[in-house]
Amino acid sequence: MNDVYREIILDHYKYPRNQGVLDNPDIETTQANTSCGDTLKLQLKLNKQGKVVKTAFSCHGCAISTAVSSLLTEVIEGKTISELEELGPEDIYKLIGGPVTTGRVSCATLALRALKQGVKAYKLKGTK
């Protein structure tokens, strides 16, 4: 584990950004990591143009899943739904300073999976 990776993870784990609950979120999803028991609730508020204006999360899990949830909520503010759909695991690895070991991939991508699930549900809801 390199020093940059370690510092980023520890900082966002100890001092998570955007942790909490939003009133009337436009997107709300819960995702679980069955391999280690982490759970994440992710909420997004969108403006009329469909851009993310506020984010919140609640994560009960390891340092990596909590830190990535915190980092991701910072990065997605101001992005459109289509920009959110373009995010992938490589973007997560850039955020934390490099890839993770095979056993930690599901932890590192928990927030991304939650985001993708929430966006998909939001779009389906909009087409009804």
List keywords for this structure.
single chain; 128 residues; alpha+beta; Sufe protein. Chain: A; 3-stranded antiparallel β-sheet
Poorly predicted residue ranges: none
Derived from helix and strand composition plus strand pairing, the structural class reads: alpha+beta
Approximately how much helix is present in the residues? 40-55%
Strand coverage percent: 15-25%
How many individual helices? 6
Rg, Å, rounded? 14 Å
Amino- and carboxy-terminal Cα gap: 46 Å
CATH architecture: Alpha-Beta Complex
> If you average the pLDDT, what whole number results?
93
Shape descriptor = globular
Q: Encode the helix/strand succession as letters.
A: HEEEHHHHH
Main-sheet strand order equals 1-2-3
The CATH topology comes to Sufe protein. Chain: A
How many extended strands? 3
Main sheet record: 3 strands, antiparallel
**How many distinct domains?**
1
Overview of the molecule:
The chain has a three-stranded antiparallel sheet with strand order 1-2-3, with helices on one face. It is of the alpha+beta class and 128 residues long. The protein has a single domain, classed as Sufe protein. Chain: A. α1 (3-14) packs across α2 (63-76). The chain has helices at residues 3-14, 63-76, 81-86, 89-96, 105-108, 110-126; strands at residues 27-33, 38-46, 52-60.
Helices, strands, pairings?
Blueprint: H1 3-14, E1 27-33, E2 38-46, E3 52-60, H2 63-76, H3 81-86, H4 89-96, H5 105-108, H6 110-126
Antiparallel strand pairs: 1-2, 2-3
Helix pairs in contact: 1-2
